[in-house]
Structure formats: structure tokens, C-alpha cells
Amino acid sequence: MTRLTLAAVAALLIATIGCSKKEADGLMVQAHDDNVFMQIMHSSMDSMMTMRMTMDPDHDFAKMMRMHHMGAVEMAEKQLAIGQDATIKGMAQMIKAAQQTEIAQLDSFIAAHTPLMDMMNADPFEAESDSAMMKMERGADLLPLTGKADFDFAQLMVVHHQSAIEMANAVIKNGDVPFIRRFAERVIVDQNKEIGQFQNWMLANRPYGSGMGGH
């Protein structure tokens, strides 16, 4: 084999290694309409956006948060069915159990509470809630979904939680029922904590760049 041939082989080998590394570090994306978690989020969003408002911020928050929680439960159930990572499956199970409990609490409140129109606070609450939902929709639509169940569940749940926190802040400012205020305050604390946990996991497990690979 001539020196020229050896040089050519070496160059080809280097190029091949470089391409493999680039592919391993690169971001592979999935069409949003094909992503099972995104499908659930869009369905949940449609339900909340078409909900009939009562003009009672506390009552409307309870109804909207119930739908919001149902979407999270459905996403968690899907992750438990198709996910692989033990940490994320544990978080999905925790979210499912906690939010099913809270759905029952909201159901009891909605059944016992008579909506009272509050024209002064209803419009600001509705505007802030609509803004939270639109941010969730835009935030989710901007995410590069990978088709990897654990990672996509984690990054979409961060967006989902952020919208719940904004809705909770909206009812704290505009509502007046003590139970709903306490409920909203608990949502803010719990979901901020979970956002941090998801973000830490994603930094270590993202399936591109310097992450560990994810599932």
C-alpha cells in the first residue's frame, strides 16, 4: 500500500469518526403531531379553551385546574406505559397519584360551591389564565421533541407545570375562597419543586450534546 493510499485511508477514517460523533451528539427530532405526549397536551388545551366560564374566579380555577390535572394524569399514565427511566417513571407515578387526589378535592369543591359572579376580578383572572394557557401551547410547540418517551415527558411536563403555576398565581390575586387559595399555594410549591427535579434530570440525560443519552 502506497503512502498516498495510507493517507487517503486515514483521512476517510477520521471523517467517518467525525460523522459518527456528530450524529451521536446531534438532535434528532420527532414531528409534534406524532408525539403521544403532545397529542394529550393539545387535547387538554382544547378542553380548557372551550370551557364555559362562570365569571367566578375560584370556581373557574377549580374547573380549569381539574382539566389541567387530568391532562397531567393522562401524560403520566402514558409515560408509565412506554417510558424506561426509573427516575422519570417514579416522578410520573408520583404526579399521577398526587393529581388524582387533587382532582377528587376539586370535584368536591365544584359540587358544593355555588358560583358567584365577580365582574371586577373575573376578567383579570380569565385574561391571566388565557395567557398561561397560550404560553403553555407556544412553549410546547417550540420544544424540539425527540421521540424518546422519558425526555419528552420531562420537558413537556415542565411547560405544563409552569402554566399551572401561572394559573394558581392568577386565582391568588383574583379569588377570595380560602380553600382555593391554599390549593393554589400548594400547586405553586409542589410544581416548582418538580420543575427543578425534571430540569436536573434533563441536564444529565438529554439525548444530544453532552447529555448521557436519555431514553
Please describe the topology of this protein.
Blueprint: H1 3-25, H2 36-49, H3 57-82, H4 86-112, H5 119-142, H6 149-174, H7 178-205
Helix pairs in contact: 2-3, 2-5, 3-4, 3-6, 5-6, 6-7
Summed up, the helix count is: 7
Q: State mean pLDDT (0 to 100 scale).
A: 88
In CATH, what is the class? Mainly Alpha
Please mark out the parts with pLDDT under 50 across 5 or more consecutive residues, or reply none.
1-24
Radius of gyration: 22 Å
Quick one: overall form? Answer: elongated
Strand content: under 5%
CATH superfamily: Ferritin, core subunit, four-helix bundle
What letter string, H or E per element, gives the SSE order? HHHHHHH
Terminus-to-terminus distance: 44 Å
Fraction of helical residues:
over 70%
The CATH topology annotation reads as Ferritin
Describe this structure in words.
By secondary structure, the protein is mostly helical. The chain has a single domain (29-205), classed as Ferritin (Up-down Bundle). Helix content is 78%, strand content 0%. It is built from 7 helices and no strands. The protein has helices at 3-25, 36-49, 57-82, 86-112, 119-142, 149-174, 178-205. The chain is elongated. 32% of the residues are buried. Residues 1-24 have low confidence and may be disordered.
TL;DR of this structure?
By secondary structure, this protein is mainly alpha-helical. It has 7 helices and no strands.
